[in-house]
Amino acid sequence: MSAATTAAGPVPEVAARPGPRRTWWTLRVLAVLHSLSAVAQPMLAGIYLDGDVDALALHELNANVVSGLGVCQLVAAIVYVWAGRGRAWPLYASLGMVLAEQVQAGLGYERVVAVHVPLGVSVIALQILLTVWLFRASAGRARGTS
Hints:
Helix content is 68%, strand content 3%.
């Protein structure tokens, strides 16, 4: 008999609330796609700077993909935190990423390269760090557990 008993009878087993499994996987997939598209941005800019003027249109198109995936990642992070009971900081990181990417796009259209380039490097680095963290076991545990 696996259940503990007391003088009043058997003690019911309490199932532990599962961690954010499905929401975690969805957030992982979107974070990987977001990271890959963000990493493509400086490569497309480099192709443009190497003399291929058409690469600027691809850089702009991919910027829209990056922004769209950022919004999708933000929605997935909201669900991960709210429904999946995941840690809260990926939500704030994703929100910051979306805001930074909007500023980044505006700076690019205004050709403020002195801020556009370092902000782009920061966005890519932070997105990769978030993606790496999402593949750690601690990301799959529910809030309040170690």
